[in-house]
TrEMBL record:
One of its GO terms (molecular function) is hydrolase activity, acting on carbon-nitrogen (but not peptide) bonds. Transmembrane segments: none annotated. InterPro entries: Glyco_hydro/deAcase_b/a-brl, NODB_dom, Polysacch_Deacetylase. It comes from the Bacteria. The lineage of its organism: Bacteria, Pseudomonadati, Bacteroidota, Cytophagia, Cytophagales. It comes from Pontibacter flavimaris. Residues 73-348 form the NodB homology domain. The keyword Chaperone does not apply. The keyword Signal applies. GO terms for biological process: carbohydrate metabolic process. Its main location: secreted. This is NodB homology domain-containing protein. It is found in: Secreted. Keywords: Signal. GO terms for cellular component: extracellular region.
Length: 348
């Protein structure tokens, strides 16, 4: 009894740190996966972070963890995917407040104008003004047969419901969002070329032929290199094509990890030692391959704090929503009380 009590007390005094997960600093029409924080809120969040918390580079936090000297209230900031707004909107604010951050880059999209598949799908299904009444298509072995009923035409009421939807914690509130999620689940495990082929079919069905949207682009090579020149910032790997790694063969996983790492190292002339698994998806093989490829740590998308016994290749992260500085501060305080077994999955 006393031993257990002492153990509990000791545990509660263990230093804990947090890794925050951002994707975009932007204002979006719909954002089912809560990827974007508005610039004004991001600035407020940085004010709170720099004033009240010990913001450290993720590499430093990993070093502290490795050397058993994790410091209480350390917070590391990370960005996933490599959207251009990381360079245009997040970077200047991080520089203004002298706050370090790590950017996990999906190397296959650098310099390409292609949107990420989840953005394009969301736009097609949730924002197209008029869609055909029914969709009937096969994706791999699955038949999608869907009747949009009264939601063929996008109304203000539908828009509002969809804008408020948080796909990872709430049931889809409209038929359109149910269809979006069905298609998302079918497309997620597929290789990039098949995702693009099916998206093309959906585009034809939706009668949409627009060019990729500039606001959804990734950074180009010069922007990535410029970002990496500032010692405040670190570049990490997020694979070549953003696959669901756990569903790939070991050799395909290795190509994704090594291909991204070597592209980035060549581009920025710096060693890349940190990795974020897309969708947080990894298995035992992924962890082994990450270590073998020379990564020193990897982050997932499950929300638990870093504590002295955290596994270095499965560090938890907390998704930061479009909150005010005050809201983020309150969240950080409550996150630091979370036990290591609570978790949730996020999109990208
Ligand atoms: Zn991602």
């Amino acid at each position: 009894m006393i031993r257990r009590l002492l153990h509990t007390i000791r545990k509660s005094y263990e230093p804990k740190a947090l890794v925050l997960m951002y994707h975009r600093v932007a204002e979006l029409e719909t954002d089912a996966w809560r990827l974007a924080v508005k610039p004004q809120n991001f600035e407020e969040q940085l004010q709170v972070l720099s004033r009240s918390w010990r913001v450290v580079p993720l590499a430093e936090l990993v070093g502290d963890l490795t050397h058993h000297r994790l410091r209480r209230n350390s917070v590391a900031i990370t960005f996933d995917d490599g959207y251009e707004d990381n360079y245009l909107a997040a970077r200047p604010l991080l520089e203004k407040y002298n706050v370090p951050a790590t950017f996990f880059i999906c190397s296959g999209n650098i310099g390409s104008r292609t949107e990420f598949w989840w953005d394009e799908l969301e736009h097609l299904i949730l924002s197209t003004e008029v869609l055909p009444h029914t969709l009937d298509m096969w994706i791999n072995q699955a038949q999608i047969n869907f009747d949009l009923g009264t939601e063929q035409h996008l109304t203000e009421a539908l828009k509002k419901k969809q804008q408020e939807w948080m796909a990872f914690v709430q049931e889809p509130p409209t038929l359109r969002s149910i269809l979006y999620l069905k298609l998302w689940e079918q497309l997620k495990p597929l290789p990039g070329h098949l995702q693009q082929a099916y998206l093309q079919q959906i585009k034809v069905w939706a009668g949409v032929s627009g060019a990729p949207r500039a606001a959804y682009q990734s950074m180009n090579l010069e922007q990535l290199q410029d970002l990496a020149r500032n010692s405040l910032f670190d570049i990490g790997a997020h694979t070549v094509s953003h696959p669901d790694l756990a569903s790939l063969s070991p050799s395909a996983q290795q190509q994704e990890l090594v291909g991204c790492k070597s592209f980035l190292e060549k581009a920025i002339s710096r060693e890349v030692t940190l990795l974020a698994y897309p969708y947080g998806s990894c298995n035992q093989e992924t962890v082994r391959l990450a270590a073998e490829a020379g990564f020193q740590a990897a982050v997932i998308t499950q929300d638990y704090p870093v504590h002295p016994t955290s596994a270095r290749y499965k560090l938890g992260r907390f998704l930061v929503d479009d909150w005010s500085g005050k809201q983020l501060d309150a969240c950080i305080k409550s996150w630091l009380t979370i036990k290591a077994n609570a978790h949730a999955h996020y999109a990208a």
